[in-house]
Amino acid sequence: MRTSIKKPLAIAGAISLGVLFSAGGVAQAQEDDWDDWAVFQADLQPLNNQQGWGEAWIEFDGDQNEATISISYEGLAEEFDGGPFPHAQHIHINGNGVCPDESADEDGDGLISTTEGHHAYGDVGTSLTTEGDTSPDSALAIDRFPGGSNADYERTIVLDDENAAQVWEENAVIVIHGVDPTLISEEAAEKESDLDPDLPMPATAPALCGSLLASQMGQMPEGAPDTGGGFIAEGNAGLMFGAAAATFVAAVLAAGYALRTRSVTGSK
Ligand SMILES: [Cu+2]
Which residues surround ligand 1, an ion (CB under 5 A)? Predict the structure, then answer.
C-alpha cells in the first residue's frame, strides 16, 4: 500500500528534474567540465615542540592528476651548518590520513621520528621539490626543497594515479620535515636520522603536518565570482525563477521523500 503511494511521487520527481535539466542543457554540460575541479587544503600544525605553522593547497583544474600545489609556512628552524635549514616536504599516502600525536613516540626520547609517525600519515608518495624529480626517490633531496624559517612554494606537477587517488579520497597528508634541535630533547637531537644515517635526526624529523581535506569541489571554474553557493544555486540561477523554481522545489521534495522512504524500508 505504501509503495503504491510513493512510487508515483518518485516518478513525478524524476520527470520534473528531467524537464529542468534538459532546459538547462548548456549548464549541465558545463557542470561535467567542472567535475575535475577541486581544491584540497591542509592546516599545517607543529609537531615535536616546534614553533611555526603553515597552510597547503592542492588545486585540480579540469584534470584529476595535474595539481597546482601551494605551501606557505613560517617560524620553522632557520639555519643549519651556516646555511638555510633544509625542510623536505612531501605528500604522504596510504596511511590513516592523519597526523601523529605524542603517543607515537615509541622509543620515549620525546621526539616523533618520521618512522614513528608512519602509521598516521603513511609513506612518502610525492616529494614536493622545487625542481626536477618528484618521486619518493627525491624524498631526501635536501638541496631541492625550500629552506629557512619561511617559505612560499608553488609548483604544478602531474601526480601519478595512486597519489592523485589518495588526495581525492582525502587520505593524503602534507608533512614538512626538519626540526629545530634546540626545541627537542638533547637525546633526540644527538641521534642520527632514522631515514639516512648520514643526516642528524633533526634534519628529517617532522616539523609541520596537516591532512588534505576537500575545500571546494566542482562548483565554479576559476575566475568566476565566488559567492559561496553550490553549482545549482549559481550555475542555474537563471532557471530558478517562476515556474522552473516551483518545479525544481517540488522535484527535490519528491525525490528526497522517495529516497528517505527507500532508505527506511531498506534498513529493515
Ligand atoms: Cu615526509
Answer: 90, 175
Q: How many domains does the chain have?
A: 2
The rounded distance, in Å, linking the Cα atoms of 26 and 20 is 12
Closest CA to 170 of 262, 98, 265: 98
Q: Are residues 72 and 17 in the same domain?
A: no
Domain, as residue range, for 9: 2-34+221-266
Measured distance CA(175)–CA(206) in Å, rounded: 7
Q: Give me the residue label for grid cell 608533512.
A: 175
Whole-angstrom Cα distance, residue 111 to residue 104?
9
User: Mean of the per-residue pLDDT values for the chain?
Assistant: 79
CA of 92 to the centre of ligand 1 (A): 6
Q: How far apart are the CA of 239 and the centre of ligand 1, in A?
A: 48
Boundary residue ending a domain (179, 194, 217) = 217
pLDDT of 117-170, one tens digit each?
999 999 999 999 999 999 999 999 999 999 999 999 999 999 999 999 999 999
